[in-house]
Design goal:
The complex is a heterodimer of chains A (about 110) and B (about 300).
Chain A: H1 8-14, H2 19-44, H3 49-65, H4 69-83, H5 87-109
Helix pairs in contact in A: 2-3, 2-5, 3-4, 4-5
Chain B: E1 2-6, H1 10-20, E2 26-30, H2 33-40, E3 48-52, H3 60-68, E4 77-82, H4 87-95, E5 100-103, H5 108-147, H6 157-174, E6 178-185, H7 188-195, H8 197-214, E7 220-225, E8 228-234, H9 238-260, E9 266-272, H10 279-295, E10 301-303
Parallel strand pairs in B: 1-2, 1-3, 3-4, 4-5, 9-10
Antiparallel strand pairs in B: 6-8, 6-9, 7-8
Helix pairs in contact in B: 7-8, 8-9
The chains are: A mainly alpha (about 110), B alpha/beta (about 300).
Bound molecules: magnesium ion.
């Protein structure tokens, strides 16, 4: 794995060292990440490219706020495929995103 | 000041809330576009908005577009927040009605500073509309005062003249009859001399009440000056006006003593407008009829 899963130091820096708030949103993240990924997976089994794009976009934004670049890049890939009308590409990138999502949550818990 | 933060991702929303809480903002949050729109339809909703562009349901840009179509659309300040960052995206959002465009990742202080600009503009709008409301109230009071006689609260001569001119052009155009009744309180000088001026005022007010009680809503009764009054009756020919004048005469004769303890009567002159006649001439004829009523012994109605 070449890209960082989760950079706690950077997140803390972005929050001016507010560890309590960081822990609080990381707690939310452990719920939100699996929920959003499950939603994206459900959408990928359908044909609604626009919804896939919006959902991947949301995951991308969340990941970048959490300083989780690997998940951000994986979501970005799906968002891009959906924007370009490439449903198969989006579906193909999904399993990689699911794997990274699980690892990101683990890294956050650690 | 209330600020609406609409953002579908919970983490992003909490970060946004953190940017604004503790800086004099009363934060209202929405987790998607539909919820944001519902909030904007509630009473006392925020006018300063930070809207994520991409949300399930209505997008931030769509909310702004819809908002600008409302009658109060100009009173909002909307910042669109997005990870889109091309000049085309910016132009699309601003042309859609957004006031400001901030790309993600944003800098908290910069975003707050931009919202502060919005806060100044929203409070300026608020101050302006409050001032406009006060001005409208003051104008209404002034118009009312300018049209009314203070003592009797009937219309005054100026309002009556304006109204008469308008009514005559309407009568000309739509061909309906119109009559005038000119009234004078009999021996009013003697009332003042015998009972004092405040009793004179009481009599004037009592007569104004009688006029009000007998007039139809479309009639215009005014204090013409001193102890003279005038009534405009639209859609009424001379005979109808004479009936009204007689009611006024008779009510004053029978009730003034009871109401004011002073026996006072009135004399009345009645005329109907003739096509082509101007307001001055019509009033002059009413005055003439009134003075014939005086000459013939007062407390009577004379048709001119
Ligand atoms: Mg979003």
């Amino acid at each position: 794995m070449s890209v960082t899963l989760f950079d706690r130091a950077e997140l803390l820096e972005n929050l001016d060292g507010d560890a309590e708030f960081a822990d609080s949103i990381l707690g939310d993240a452990q719920v939100e990440i699996p929920k959003d990924v499950a939603q994206l997976k459900a959408l990928c089994s359908g044909e609604e490219l626009h919804s896939i794009r919006v959902c991947a976009h949301t995951i991308k934004g969340m990941a970048s706020n959490l300083c989780a670049p690997a998940l951000r890049d994986a979501a970005f890939a799906i968002e891009g495929a959906a924007r370009d009308g490439d449903l198969e590409g989006a579906r193909a990138a999904l399993s990689e995103l699911e794997k990274i999502a699980v690892m990101t949550v683990e890294a956050i818990k650690a | 000041m209330k600020i609406l933060l609409a953002e579908d991702d919970k983490i992003s929303r909490r970060l946004l809330e953190r940017v604004f809480s503790g800086y004099g903002y009363d934060v209202v949050s929405a987790s998607d576009g539909d919820e944001a729109w519902r909030i904007l339809e509630e009473p006392e909703h925020p006018h300063l908005l930070v809207l994520d562009w991409m949300m399930p349901g209505v997008t931030g840009v769509e909310i702004v577009k819809r908002l600008r179509e409302r009658p109060d659309g100009h009173t909002y300040y909307a910042i669109i927040l997005t990870s889109l960052d091309t000049p085309d995206d910016l132009a699309y959002a601003l042309d859609g009605g957004a006031d400001e465009f901030v790309s993600k990742p944003y800098h908290a202080d910069a975003l707050r500073a931009r919202a502060n600009v919005g806060r100044r503009i929203v409070s300026l709008h608020h101050t302006l509309s409050e001032k406009i409301r006060l001005l409208q109230e003051a104008n209404a009071t002034i118009s009312h005062l300018a049209a009314t006689d203070e003592l009797t609260t009937l219309y005054n001569r100026r309002y009556f003249n304006e109204n008469l001119t308008k009514s005559i052009s309407a009568a000309k155009r739509y061909k309906f009859p119109l009559s005038l009744v000119m009234v004078d309180i009999d021996k009013f000088k003697a009332v003042n001399d015998t009972y004092g001026h405040s009793s004179g005022d009481t009599v004037l007010k009592a007569f104004a009440d009688i006029l009000r009680s007998l007039a139809r809503t479309e009639d215009v009764s005014a204090r013409w000056g001193g102890e003279e009054f005038i009534i405009l009756l639209t859609h009424t020919a001379r005979d109808g006006a004479a009936v009204m004048a007689e009611r006024v005469r008779s009510k004053m004769a029978s009730e003034c003593l009871r109401v004011t303890s002073i026996p006072v009567t009135v004399s009345l002159g009645v005329v109907e407008w003739g096509d082509g006649e101007d307001p001055e001439l019509l009033i002059k004829r009413a005055d003439k009829a009134l003075y014939r009523a005086k000459d013939e012994g007062r407390n009577r109605v004379v048709l001119g």
